[in-house]
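Recall the central idea of this unit: under ordinary conditions, the amino acid sequence of a chain determines the structure it adopts. In this exercise we apply that idea directly, starting from the sequence alone.
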Amino acid sequence: MDYLKAFLCGGILCAIGQILIDKTQLTPARILTGYVVAGVLLGAVGVYQPISDWGGAGASVPLTGFGFALAKGVKKAVEEKGWLGVFTGGLTATAGGIAAAVIFGVLMALLFRPGDKR
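Accordingly, the structure predicted from this sequence is:
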């Protein structure tokens, strides 16, 4: 049942993104940025935690989950370190995901030799 919940939650988030691409003039970069900001805002008002609890990886893996993790990390760091946590909390909370993205990005670039399309 957890797999089904994750599939539904992630699928709904992806479907919303696809609708935004198809029906608006927003660029994909703006939609991705909007998803991160939406995760931060939904986490701030307490809505994203229940979604994350229900959807599992379907809510924590997409960009909204990244924004939520950033906000949660900042909140925790501010409680522990004061205002210095505003600058350190987000990166501390998401360091594993950021490191994995960089490592796998470099690995894929070495394996597949990306270049400009002509």
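Residues 2-112 form one domain.
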